[in-house]
Design brief:
This protein is 30% helix and 21% strand. It is built from 18 helices and 21 strands. A 10-stranded mixed β-sheet has the order 1-2-3-4-6-5-7-8-11-12, with helices on both faces. Strands 13-21-20-19-18-17-16-15-14 form a 9-stranded antiparallel β-sheet, covered by helices on one side. A two-stranded antiparallel ribbon has the order 9-10.
């Protein structure tokens, strides 16, 4: 559960809008044919037209801050309702989607949810409720903590002092009751629930507390409310397995001597022996300072569970650093991990204080919350010493100390040391009741087999909590499978570029509990790791000549380097937050949405030092087709056209064109 933060909103924004910033790249969903009324009455609430690109209506209700009534104050709960398209017919149901974090607003991911459920929206409404302390629901702001970019103990302590006893009023249980109150106010009975990441934890608590409000439940990238370990061993086991799975599923990687983990362990040892500092570009092309050491390598490796770029690049970056004395790929990947794990400054988009409040209220800790601060520290030290003595290799190849000092570490075990003691009557870590049953409601549990944020082991454990659960493990996918993995905003079936997971979700909801044929999950294409980084184009393994090729061996190496350049830019899509960035060794790129995917423009991008690549790449995410028209300069001049289908297992890129006047016709594994 390292970095449990990475819910759909983080991944959505990682591909086109920064954390705590609006998504800028994708085009909005089409507006309804008729302009909506200025207001509508739903149940006992008057809703006002909002989000005109999507035809939504906004409303609020007021709830007591303290459900027990011992603390004064209220909290506004904001929500958005998107009525079904066929206004002449009554709604067949309501989809209730909940975002994760904790700390993200559900309304901030409206486009992903609306695209996912668009095929059902003829007769189904979609309701998005922002949990208390997020988005439209009085987001908590502790300024120093929000702007720190790290969980600085002094900033956490200042936030605790600012909130006082109210710090314990933002847990999952009162938030679940708020959502039920919204349903009551709107006159809505049962809903089809979809939650991702922390939204799955929230869904479990909601299911226990309000079982009669659920028709179906979909839990996407889930971790259990019962039996959660503060050490999160299964997550790290998934990372270790994940790098091996990615390598074994790649022809170029499995042909290498040794194991991927062995190469990363060798890198960890080298950084441990000789740590340093560097500056490198992050996913947006901003140069930032990084520590080049084992704790930062842990951050980088651990980030793989949230997106394919880290799985794709790290093995080859380790080989480049160790064998070729080329630090650029590793330094860049570390910078990307650091920025990718940094929250933004807008609490309405992501409230860092809400995150801390929920973690401290609901997650198990290694010390008693009612103990003094000094005693908490002693209890944590004893628990850590005991773990060190009995299971010191839990995070191998990293030590427990290296993990604890990793930068940008979200679920650090000392996070709540300075949080206030709970008010009388408030019991920490009691959002879910281990003795209470979960409802006999059709439940779909989805887990990516490469997801280390919410591991597939946790997914199976959660499925076992529900009497009527269907568990689906998804090959080659990381965190959040139905709306963000591999790509985003793919019409007409939501934001699932695999063309597999979203239809399963839709069938489950439409049918009331039948997932249908799930065999497509075994055909989701593997992540294609970089075969090797190279400083010079001549060092790249040549593409394989096809009929009609008149190019030389050097030309085929240039063609392969051009393909790697294109693939490197596409990989930055998953860690970019603003639609533009820089090449590994120079040049710039930008990208923007078209109706079915994204178009990239490259300007003198240098993946290899001596080859500058310009031109365009068009990625049709609805079909998987990738086409590129590239111009080469530097080591040679020429023009090349590339084409492959990104959904194909072991996809081959076809390369045609001319280099220095010679006709090139070749192929190589797609980047």
């Amino acid at each position: 559960m390292f970095g449990r933060l990475w819910a759909a909103a983080a991944l959505l924004t990682a591909a086109g809008g920064a954390m705590a910033q609006e998504q800028t790249a994708p085009a909005p969903a089409p507006a309804p044919a008729e302009a909506p009324a200025a207001t509508i009455q739903v149940g006992g609430v008057t809703l006002t037209a909002c989000q005109p690109d999507f035809g939504g209506f906004c409303g609020t209700i007021t709830r007591p801050l303290d459900p027990a009534g011992k603390l004064p104050g209220t909290v506004t709960i904001g929500f958005e309702l998107y009525p079904h398209h066929d206004a002449g017919q009554p709604a067949e149901g309501v989809v209730l989607a909940q975002e994760g974090g904790p700390g993200y607003s559900s309304t901030g991911t409206r486009e992903g949810y609306l695209r996912l459920f668009e095929p059902l929206r003829g007769r189904r409404d979609v309701l998005l409720v922002d949990k208390r302390g997020t988005g439209l629901s009085d987001p908590i702001q502790c300024q120093a903590l929000q702007e720190a970019g790290e969980f600085v103990p002094a900033a956490i302590a200042a936030c605790a002092k600012q909130l006082g006893p109210a710090a314990w009023m933002y847990g999952t249980a009162p938030a679940a009751d708020d959502v039920a109150a919204v349903l009551d106010a709107l006159g809505i009975g049962k809903v089809d629930y979809y939650g991702d990441s922390y939204g799955t934890w929230f869904g479990q608590v909601f299911a226990q507390r309000h079982p009669d409000r659920l028709r179906t439940i979909v839990l996407d990238s889930v971790y259990p409310t019962i039996g959660l370990s503060p050490w999160f061993e299964t997550e790290w086991a998934t990372i270790q397995d994940g790098f091996e799975l990615v390598c074994r599923r790649s022809p170029s990687c499995r042909a290498l001597d040794g194991r991927s983990l062995d190469r990363i362990e060798k890198l960890a040892a080298a950084l441990r022996a000789k740590p340093g500092k560097a500056e490198a570009p992050d996913g947006d092309g901003n140069t930032i300072g990084i520590a080049v050491d084992a704790p930062t390598l842990f951050l980088t490796m651990n980030s793989a569970g949230g997106g394919p770029t880290f799985y794709r690049d790290l093995d080859a970056a380790a080989r480049a650093y160790l064998d070729a004395k080329d630090p650029a790929p590793l330094h860049r990947l570390m910078a990307e991990a650091a920025s990718w794990n940094t929250p933004g400054s807008d609490p309405a988009a992501f409230s860092t204080a809400l995150y801390v409040s929920v973690v401290c209220s609901d997650y198990p800790q290694l010390f008693r919350a009612d103990a003094s601060r000094a005693e908490r520290r002693r209890q944590l030290m004893r628990a850590t010493a005991q773990k060190q003595a009995t299971d010191r290799d839990v995070y191998a190849p990293f030590t427990i100390a290296e993990v604890d000092t990793s930068p940008h570490k979200w679920e650090r075990r000392d996070l709540c040391l300075d949080w206030p003691a709970p008010p009388k009557g408030v019991v920490p870590a009691s959002a879910a009741d281990p003795k209470a049953p979960f409802p006999n409601v059709p439940t779909l549990v989805l887990s990516g087999d490469l997801d280390s944020i919410t591991s597939p082991i946790e997914g199976l454990e959660t499925a076992r909590l529900f009497p009527d659960a269907t568990y689906v493990q998804l090959r080659n996918l990381t965190h959040i499978t139905a709306i963000t993995d591999q790509a985003i905003f793919v019409p007409p079936k939501g934001a699932d570029a695999t063309g597999c997971v979203a239809p399963i979700v839709l069938n489950f909801v439409r049918s009331g509990g039948d997932a249908g044929d799930t065999s497509c999950t075994q055909r989701i294409r593997p992540i294609r790791p970089v075969p090797a980084f190279a400083m010079k184009a001549a060092d790249v393994a040549p593409a394989t000549a096809d009929a009609g090729n008149a190019g030389t061996d050097a030309d085929l190496r240039l063609a392969a380097a051009a393909a790697e350049t294109a693939g490197d830019v596409l990989a930055r899509y998953f860690v970019n937050s603003g639609g533009s960035g820089v090449g590994l060794r120079g040049g710039t790129f930008k990208f923007e949405a078209f109706d079915a995917g994204f178009a990239f423009t490259l300007d003198q991008i240098r993946w290899a030092e001596d080859l500058a690549v310009s031109g365009t790449i068009r990625w049709d995410q609805s079909t998987g087709d990738v086409t590129a028209d590239l111009t080469l300069a530097g080591a040679a001049t020429g023009t090349l056209a590339l084409a492959w289908n990104d959904r194909d297992t072991d996809a081959m890129a076809r390369i045609t064109g001319t280099i220095d006047g010679r006709q090139v016709a070749a192929e190589r594994i797609a980047p």
